[in-house]
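Appendix B, Record 12. Input sequence as logged:
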Amino acid sequence: IKNIQHWNFECDDEKIITLIFDKKNSKVNVFNQETLTELDQILNVIQQNYREAKALIIRSAKTGSFIAGAD
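Logged structural output:
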């Protein structure tokens, strides 16, 4: 996926997708227009290309918290 800076995902052999939030250049993850737009793009790719997925896990790459807030 082009121009995605804050998210990454992987699909394992059991068809479980892990979506990882890691806001670039930030100590904590914060939702803003850019991160939500990227999330929408990734979810569309997953929906179109991973139809056989059994589960979607969303986690943070930051330690200690998932999301600190929204701008």
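The two ends are 24 Å apart (CA to CA).
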